[in-house]
Each structure stands twice: as C-alpha cells, then as structure tokens.
Amino acid sequence: MLSTLAARASTCLRCGTSSSAARSACFSTISGTTRRKMLQVGKKLLAQPAIRNVAVVDTKRASAKLGRSTWKDLRAIFKLAGPYKGRIILGLSFLGISSSVFLLTPRTLGKLIDEFDDTKKQEPGTEDATLLMARYFKEHPVALAGVLLIGAAAIAARVYCMHTAGQLIINDLRKKVFASVLKQDMKFFDKNKVGEIVSRLSTDALIVGYSVSMNLSDGARALVTCLGSGSLMVYTSPALCKVMFFVIPIMVGTFAVFGRLQRKYTLEMQDAVAAANQVATERLGSVKTVRMLVAEPKERAAYGAKIQNIWDISKKEGAAKGVMFGSFQFTGYMALSTILFYGSTLISKGLLTYGELSSFCLYAVLSAASLSNMSGFFVEIMKGLGASARLFELRDQKPMIPLVGGIKKENVEKEITFENVTFAYPDRDRLFSNISFQVPAGKITAVVGPSGSGKSTIASLMLRLYEPDGGRILVDGVDLKDMDPSVWRRNIGTVGQEPVLFSTSIRENIVYGAEHPEQVTEAQIEEAAKQSNSWEFLRRFPDGLNTMVGEHGSTLSGGQKQRVAIARALVTNPRILILDEATSALDATSEYLVRVALNRLLENSQQTVLIIAHRLSTIKHADQIVVIDQGTVVERGTFDELVQIEDGVFKKLVEKQTIGWNGAAV
Ligand SMILES: Nc1ncnc2c1ncn2[C@@H]1O[C@H](COP(=O)(O)OP(=O)(O)OP(=O)(O)O)[C@@H](O)[C@H]1O
C-alpha cells in the first residue's frame, strides 16, 4: 500500500510534466542562397563555436546542479509565475482546506473505531476535537461523506487553478521565445536547427510551466502532508514512531539514488526526442525531394536510428524506475508489517488502541506517499531548471541586427553605395574582400558573376539580412546600419531564386508583404497579378485568387509560383525591386511578358532595380552591369561596353552561355 502510493508520485517522463500533471494531462521574398537557407527552416541550424558574435544557442542539455547560478535560475523560473500569482495563491488556499480535511480524517476514523469498543471509552473531560467529530460522525455518517466531499472539491479547485496557471505560464513562455527566435539574425538560423528549437518550444516550455505550477502545488501538498502526518504519527504513538527511524533513511536514500538517475535519463530522453523531431521536421518538410531521390529507405533508417536512441534510454529509464518502485514496495511493506507487528504487541500490553494503530497506519501511508511526492517535486524542479536554461537562452538572445529602430528612410533619392565592403559567412572564407559600386536610383543595375561569386549575397546585404564585416553600405550617404531595417525592407520588393509561398490562398500570398494587408484593394491585387502575368492562369482556377496553394505552394507550377511571387513584390508598389533570377522559372513567353510589364513599371514609377541574373540575355537593357568575381568588382558598364572588353569576365560569361545555348539547341 505504501509503495503503491509512493509509485503514484512517479513522473510522466515522456512528456515531462510534473508528477501529477503528467498523470492527469498526460520572406516573403528573400533571394538566392539566403532564400534557400530560409526555406530550409526546419532544416539547417546548430551550435558550433560562435565566431564574430554569431548567436549560437547551445541546445544540448546538461543536468542542472543546485549551485549558486541554479538558485538564480530557480528565481527566474518562479518569476514566470508572477503574473498569475493570484491564481496560484488561490490554488494554495484550496490546498490548505483539502490538507486539513484529509489530515484530520485518519485520526477521527481511529477515534471512531475506538468509539465502537466499549472497553476503550475515553474518560469524560479528556476528549479532543477529533473525538467530538468522531462521535458526531458515528451519529451522522452522512456528515462524514459531506466533509470528505468538501475536501475533494477543494482538491478539484486546487488542480484547476494550478493547471490553468501552468498553461498560462507555458503560453507566455512560448510566445516570448517564438518572438525572440523570429527576430534573430540570419546568422542565427544558419547556425541553429529550427526543428530542435520547435521541440524546445513545445516540450521544454511544458516542463518549465508545470514545474512552477502543478509541481509547486504537488510539492506544497507533499510538504504539508509530510509534516502534518509526521507530527500526528508522533502525537498518536511515539512508541511506534521508532519504526519510522529505520524506514525513512532507506526510503530517502532510494529516492536520492534513483531520483538522480531518473533525472539523468529524463534529460537524455528529451534530447533524444528533440533529435528525432528534428529529423522528422526536416525530412517531411522536403518530402518531394526525398521521393524524387528515392530516399525513403534512407530516411526510414535515419528516423529509426533516432527512435532506437529513445528506446535505449527508455530501457535504462525503465530499469531505474523498476528498481526504485521495487525498493519502495519492499521498504513500504516491511515498514507496514513491522508497524502492525509491533503495534499489536503494544495493543496486547494495553499501551495502544486499535483505533490508534489504524490512524497510525493511515498516517504512515500518507507520509510515505508525501515523501515520495517531495522527491518527485525536486526531480521536476531540476527538470524545469534544465529545460528553462535553453528556453531562457533563446528568449534572452539579442540579435545583432534589430528589427526596428533607426532612421526611417523610405526611399533612395540618389544611389545605394557599396563602399569597400568585406564580408564572410560564419565559418567560411572571406567572400568579398573589397566590393565597391553604386546602384543609381531609378535605374536598373544588374549584378552578374560566376556561380557562387556572391550575387545573392549582395542582395542579402542590401536587405540588411547580414551586415558587412568591413566597409559600408550607404543609402544617399546614410549608413544602412543607422537605418530602421523594417522601414527599409518594407520599401523593397524582392523576388528570390526559389519563390516561397505559404500554404494559404493566392490572395493571402500576394498581400503577405503589405504592412496592412486588409487595406490592399482588389484592384491593386488584380493589377499586380496582371503585371506579373499571373492573371491569365489565376482566372482559369475555379477559386481564382482564393485557390489554396498547398505547403510551400506545392500545388502550383514553378513558373506560376514565380509569377505569384512577382505579384507579391509588386502589389505594394515598392520603390526598390530586387529580382534574383526572378524570371528563371518562366518560359520564354512568360519571361518576355514579365519583362515588358517590368519595363513599363520602371518607366512609370522610376523604381530602383537590382537584377541578379544568370541569363545574360535578360539584362541587355540594364543601365549598368556590375561583374563580380573572386570577391571583388572586376568590371562595370553597359552590356555593349562590357562585351567589348577583350578577355573580360563578362565577355567570357556571355561566350560560355552562347556555347551553352548552342549546345542546348543541338
Ligand atoms: N548562409 C550561408 N552560410 C554560409 N555560406 C553561404 C551562405 N549563403 C551562401 N553561402 C556561400 O557564399 C557563396 C556565395 O553564395 P551566393 O548565393 O551569394 O552566390 P551566387 O553568386 O548568388 O550563386 P548562384 O549564382 O549559384 O546562385 C557560396 O560559396 C555559398 O556557398
């Protein structure tokens, strides 16, 4: 019986909530490679040593030890409960009611038993409150049921208050961590695994929330019950308490050893589950590629290996739990047998009544269960600390590039200047050593260069997704670093190499980048769709603009996706356009129509355009072509000027493509 109650205190290690909780609740348009990287959200990330202020969150767990810093963390997790302290205090008040009822009941029942024994009648004048209650209950048994019902209702109210407080804390934590992750720099996403972060958001937030709500209430209940029943045991029979002196150290020792093991395996289990989630998120997110590459068996094996990991830990966890509960059972029954054996001898000597022995046994059961719950409380708090460490790191991470703040510059009047820009991606060699060029306002500038030379990176730098390591990017003489990034980006329409659509309707996708999507008129959407040459195919869809596009726009063709992405970039009539291979997925006719539309747009609105192009035929009419190679600008001029340069990089690129086209034509 003792051990059964002790076992109740076990924790749901899989979902990681507190003991009883576990039982009861058991860019839009970013271009080039950057776009690819972002698209792989749920794909790329991790913790390698930070270089150049790269924010890396160490998502590996280490078991928390109660050191000085842990007390600080402990305060930090209890601070989360601050906004809901009213609810928590109410829950704890209900705990006071239920504990009083259930602590006094065994003693009252003991007295009730003795009331039926005429030889054990208490001397008049020596009655205590419990005896008076026992006598009342003897006459009115329904009243006993009523008192027990009040206790049960108080438990229900406590559980409701603490459960909902826990959920509110979890919601807060998830929202804060998500908001913090969302504003991190691109470098952060280059380094951390999104799938794992999502797992932290779901699992770790749950653990932390419950550790300061349900677990707090369970711990308080255990403490009150342990102290109360311990005192009442001493009060009921000091002689029988001697037995407990042998039992308590054995039980506490068992908890200490196996509780620690349990914590270790729980943390290992959460890591293993996060790793499995990461694989599932990444692979299912790219299921088309998996299918095309016939990689299902490989993926099954990769996921299987992660599940095997979980299984290996689970076996150790199960063994530790088994031995712990076995020990409780043994110790509990030994203690109970000894109490009954020794108690009977005391009864035979007239030193104890049957009622007192019964009360004592009930208090022994209560104190054993509460001891077990208290150990569970510490296990949960340690788990909460372990989980909170990662979440707090994510929550408190400060991005190097803020989302807002700075000079609100909305347009480029004269030019955007790259001035001696140097740049390297984290853990990579320097990509740009000294890039300098101008993008004149209202003109078309094309950036060309061999694959991997950094064309898309120019766009990323212009959008301030990354910051130069050296040199400056100036907009009409104002350093991009001093400008408000959101205001700046909102004025740039970007169409990336791989258009990214969200799994919603075409209409929602088109207005996605607008500051106030609800204010975009039907006429504006239609106009953008026409300009991007999407209108023709959109009209033929039965649901038109309301057609749902599936995950990442999977129900549209590549060219259709590209055109919807162009419509999205045009709908807000941005002052700057970045087109990264924007017409690469269009057939010759569509490409021509888009170009005509874009040219018309340029003539009308004097937009500043940066085209990153591979197909050199598409940039014949650019006002300026910037050729980059080996980390620097090697040539600049118009198409006709550049093809004149003997042995020039541009000329060679054009020649190569001409041969390519000829080859393709053969
Ligand atoms: N997020 C990133 N982290 C690390 N390296 C990156 C990242 N993005 C791009 N790179 C690397 O930087 C280099 C330049 O990439 P970028 O996409 O700018 O080239 P590109 O000229 O646009 O190439 P392509 O014409 O093939 O699209 C490449 O070597 C690429 O591997």
TrEMBL record:
Protein localization: Membrane
Protein name per UniProt: ABC transporter ATP-binding protein
Domain of life: Eukaryota
Organism: Pristionchus pacificus
Biological processes per GO annotation: transmembrane transport
Keyword RNA-binding: no
Gene Ontology MF terms: ABC-type transporter activity; ATP binding; ATP hydrolysis activity; ATPase-coupled transmembrane transporter activity
TM regions (residue ranges): 88-105, 142-161, 243-261, 323-342, 362-382
All copies of domain ABC transporter, residue ranges: 416-655
ABC transmembrane type-1 domain: residues covered: 89-383
Keyword Protein biosynthesis attributed: no
